[in-house]
Amino acid sequence: MLSNSNIFSNRFARPAKLMLAVVFLAIASLGPVFAQSEAGVKTAFLYNFAKFTEWPASAFAGDSAPITVGFVGADSLADTFEKNVTGKNANGRDFAVKKLSGAAGVESCQIVFVGDASQAAAVIAATKGKPVLLVGDSGGFAAAGGMITFVVTDGKVSFDLDLGAINAGGLKLDAKLRQVARNVKGG
């Protein structure tokens, strides 16, 4: 007969281990700097979002085109990301980084991180129905049409997914991302 503690540990051990493994691999693959700051953890997640997202071929100019990651109102995060992904790739594609002040140019990116909450509605409108993975961290980002929202609770960064918005953009996420998300809407 199983005790209550065995039932609890069996039921929750696998998901917890999987999440820890993914976060550990994300952080380890990009270096020790990432483990030390919120920006580092967000950057590691962005890198892994690129690895676990499938874009339609039309999202790229060609087979060797890079994954372009745009940062709207988040120059510091853009610098951290660029520094730590130089020489790395996701699914055979290198990375290009764009610092943007608003929605102009976001449609040419595959991933856009919106750090300026006042620009969220314009960025979401400019990319509606396009294969651009939209990531943000402001309150109301998901409700406005964002796809992935970072959430910081007790100093720990996690994220919520909106599969309806992701599917509307023609993107496919690997099940691993769904498993480690804090909340999944539409799935």
Describe, in short, the structure shown.
With 187 residues, the chain is α/β, with parallel strands linked by helices. The protein is 39% helix and 21% strand.
Q: According to CATH, what is the topology?
A: Rossmann fold
User: Can you name the CATH architecture?
Assistant: 3-Layer(aba) Sandwich
Secondary-structure class: alpha/beta
| Alpha-carbon distance between the two ends | 35 Å
- Encode the helix/strand succession as letters: HHEEHEEHEEEHEHE
User: Any idea what the CATH superfamily is called?
Assistant: Response regulator
Q: What's the CATH class, please?
A: Alpha Beta
Count the beta strands. Answer: 9
Order of the strands making up the biggest sheet: 3-2-4-5-6-7-9
Beta-strand proportion: 15-25%
Give the averaged pLDDT, no decimals.
85
Most strands sheet: 7 strands, mixed
In total, the number of domains comes to 1
| Backbone CA Rg | 17 Å
Question: Can you give a write-up of this model?
Answer:
The protein is of the alpha/beta class and 187 residues long. The protein has one domain (4-185): Response regulator (Rossmann fold, 3-Layer(aba) Sandwich). It is built from 6 helices and 9 strands; from the N terminus they run H-H-E-E-H-E-E-H-E-E-E-H-E-H-E. The protein has helices at residues 4-30, 38-51, 75-85, 120-127, 163-168, 175-180; strands at residues 53-54, 67-72, 95-100, 111-114, 133-136, 148-153, 156-162, 172-173, 183-185. The protein has a 7-stranded mixed sheet, with helices on both faces. The protein has a two-stranded antiparallel sheet with strand order 1-8. Helix 1 packs across helix 2. The protein is globular and about 40 Å long. The relative contact order is 0.14. Mean pLDDT is 85; it is low at 1-35.
